[in-house]
């Protein structure tokens, strides 16, 4: 992007403004456009009229008010990108001025206090809801600078007044920025204008600023706006010449966060500016339309809480009681935190520093300086949703001295970070000893307290007496299961931490870690049928206590209040819990491996306690989450995708065109054309493609591929693109959208509605925002090699095809931890395929631990695990990933989708990093790049041995016949067991039954055993010679082909370009859907050393016996049209089970994968045949090479415990459940066949029956 192109920096909001001018507010029932939720600031909420009055509107054909056309097209050209804007980002929209002499070369287009995804008022920071009337006197006061920085163009019959009113000021009337002490305050309109002029003036005067902003895309960080604002202090003149410059130091703040704008907190600027609380947004509007009142905070993720209420600029002041949000480290103790004006006193039962001074660094952040030596700790503080009469907050302190984590997620994923839950009584909780000096309590009026506590007790009554005849349902409600750290609120809080433990067998226990002498109090638990939040605790002495349980789901760490009130026993009872309230917190993710120090006692994700959907309005009102799975809503697993029938969300052609514009459609996309070797192939060749072109030569024009393809006629969407009967030549003539969406094995005829080809991060972000806004199911793909159609959604949706992200860089040193990559690293864009990676690594005399297939993509390979020719010596794919850059769709402070970038590595987001190395594809976000460890080419180079062998199924014991095979497999297994880490094999055993006639002559059945292996070293090494010679003995082969290569690329150049064809059709014979008889793809199993030694050879013969039996009795349900169950077998020893291979344990692949000696892929077996034979060799299968139909797929891919942890990570990082794929983390664990869930199922069913009707 060149900044001096027209409208160089224009935000997404600008696009939306242009489209949203029909004069009706979304508050109005008559508003026909449901997609116009983003721009309520334009309207008077009551009247639905546009806010400006000075001739900026015209009547539309229905007589409604319509905004006049903007004089400039706001976002309709390739060089006018529409980016995504996070909360707290400010955007300066600028325009090259070539029409107004006397104005600066760059003029202002707008200064926008923006919101996440441009979704309007509810996302405005600090609760600015409706803006305010524009003070038109401003136009006169600032006439000079306005016409200078905001020239108008007579050509458009546009007046400055009109333009400013319509395109600028309406957004500026609620500008709020964080001030010097971190407290947000609203800019008066006058100050707001001045801030804009300072920014525009600086931009014109400062080439460096222009240069840097060019790379920052359309964003001006909050820091930069603060900085411009500070320059306005004391500036009272109104002429252009008097516009002050920003200070140099201050400008540096604009770029302090590089391009990580999404995580860039406001700066802690030294300023003497006094903040005026009266500038806070008016209370009335704060609590108006969306019901978010002052006292109630939505769950905060990326938002900043800032003003708790307009008259409380220090919402932290007072005493909070806290406990660690982890089970290890800092979480061992509880303490009280008393905030005064700038000192935090910590009272604790641990050696934690006693006193900290604190400064506010931003609306939601504190910097603590703790202890005598002024050890500096950066802390993040976020207010959480109130619960059960308690205010709640989250505090994360980075003990390492590194900056505070950027968000709740990041905190829980940052090693060395101490995380705490903090509670205190709300003002309304009269008589609360827990935090008596809470400022809100002190400042509240008695009458208000009474009213509030009355209303609270109405909506949330104390539990009444318990009837013995109605004890409820045995056991605790699912959300209460687990081990909770707790503090008693109403009394005994000084006793410190208590631990509640609720188990699935209906038992509960209470312990006081600081008072072991108190022993354990035990209860049995039940809960009310009608009201699951009513929990009954029966003590050993028979006392029954009724408690009200309120639960607040938070990703990663949830909290609750247990409010115990009524008894049937006298107060002197030892177990009496009359009027005892507990504040509780516990970790969500849910296995022994939990990085958040979660224990198995909290392993209840599967029971529903971890579902982010539970944090919706019902949970916030204190209700329990709905029961899991058996309810229809839970079966959908939170997916709520839009379908073509739903016109309120399904994208219109106009919306699609806008997306296309955001993707810079005029930029040529030529990256997929392939000439011939030695150029690396950029993508796989689909079967039958003319001239071996990827994507059947799609985009073979000077302009290349289009940015976006879609089904003009949605009725075309769900039908096979590549008809097997038509033959491969016809596939070259398939529609463009079919070619754009092509991928391997289209089992279900589910095609994406839209396919986009992004060129950069901004394009991916635009696509994600679009998908989230339209509630489209999102799938991702690069090459399309994925075997199980995982890159297609049942409802159509959006396919983000990252094959063109081809950046590459060699990093001689891996900065995060050089020891992890002694030979350096490569960073590749997500579109990289192995041939390109090998070509590049050869230039640097390095090698990467790739897979066998040259056109497999980097991303899918590494997500699934990744075995290959160098795995035994250099590790699996997952062992070599150093960093992943991913765009995700998170939620903002108001639960709305917001796109943000995450870096996952050993240091950053380690939990996500763990999950993305082996947890499979599709559900973690869209990967932009991966950094992969480079390896030195082994001394002696890379040696290859190839032995082709042919034989028959002749039943006697002649050489290379059936009985010969039986003996050979035993020798073969023994040979495999001796292999060390230098050897990696991919033997392929192909059976050809095409010549078999029904006469029973098994000699007509032939086989070919292509035995290929790599040796990491030279051909003179003794091991090389040993393994080669022994293999010759095993195979009784004389012909051996041997090669030695200086690089892996040299090897690839010796392969034919169509060696690994991409099979685009559905391989199952019509009309077979995937079934246990035709499972699709390949059944796979990881074979351990032990199984290799004891069972492999006989199991292989069992499998061949199945083949022979099917020759005699063909099976009409077989995917082989002849009814045979033979197919072929790959027997990879390219894992980490060889002698001497290293087996690190820090990735998400299954234990069976890690320790396996071989991975066996078998085609054409039924589910039952697999279970009777190869599945018996090991409990795990390979995610990336396995059958479409699989029972217990969660256990086979990862093991149940690990799957639950993966699921928790998925939920934490994809809280809106935007990403889905077949048998990926988050799919229905009980569904073996890949039936679509919920609404998608209805859609597919409806679609299918309509199609049948059409077909007659
Ligand atoms: C001929 C052939 C040979 C193979 N050989 C090997 C081998 O030797 N070793 C081995 O381990 N595996 C092998 N595989 C399996 C291969 O690793 C998987 O099929 C893998 O998923 C392919 O990745 P891809 O990126 O090329 O495919 P794609 O189909 O493009 O992507 C696969 C999946 O990865 C995810 N994905 C892709 N791009 C992105 C992105 N930018 N962001 C987020 N997610 C993304 C998506 O979920 C997608 O469904 C082979 C497959 C084939 C077809």
UniProtKB/TrEMBL annotation:
Residues making up the signal peptide according to the UniProt record: 1-19
SUPFAM superfamilies found in the cross-reference section: FAD-binding/transporter-associated domain-like, Ribonuclease Rh-like
Q: Which cofactor does it need?
A: FAD
> Where does the FAD-binding PCMH-type domain lie?
748-937
User: Per the record, which residues fall in region Disordered?
Assistant: 443-472, 616-642
User: GO molecular function terms here?
Assistant: FAD binding; oxidoreductase activity; ribonuclease T2 activity; RNA binding
List the keywords (alphabetical).
FAD, Flavoprotein, Oxidoreductase, Signal
Q: Does the keyword Lyase apply?
A: no
InterPro entries cross-referenced by the UniProt entry: BBE, FAD-bd_PCMH, FAD-bd_PCMH-like_sf, FAD-bd_PCMH_sub2, FAD-linked_Oxidoreductase, Oxid_FAD_bind_N, RNase_T2-like, RNase_T2-like_sf
* Sections of the chain in a coiled coil: none
Which family does this protein fall into?
Answer: Belongs to the RNase T2 family.
PANTHER family per the UniProt record, alphabetical = BINDING OXIDOREDUCTASE, PUTATIVE (AFU_ORTHOLOGUE AFUA_1G17690)-RELATED, FAD-BINDING PCMH-TYPE DOMAIN-CONTAINING PROTEIN
What name does UniProt use for this protein?
FAD-binding PCMH-type domain-containing protein
